[in-house]
Fold:
Amino acid sequence: EQIIKNANTDFLTQLYNRRYFYAWLGEHQHEALTIVYMDLDYFNCRNKSCKCYVRIYTQKKTCGRTYSFK
Structure:
């Protein structure tokens, strides 16, 4: 179970990764859905002066807020 969790989440942020998204999409392919794409890596590139934990915190908060719209 831990191996599957590690394969489907980012090590630092514990957020789901692309592998998880594609598996989830395959399970829900016959349902109507809306996808919002946000490039958080661009945020990281623009804020190299921030400490790593600040970027991780921002990513988690951003994803948490968008996930709560479910």
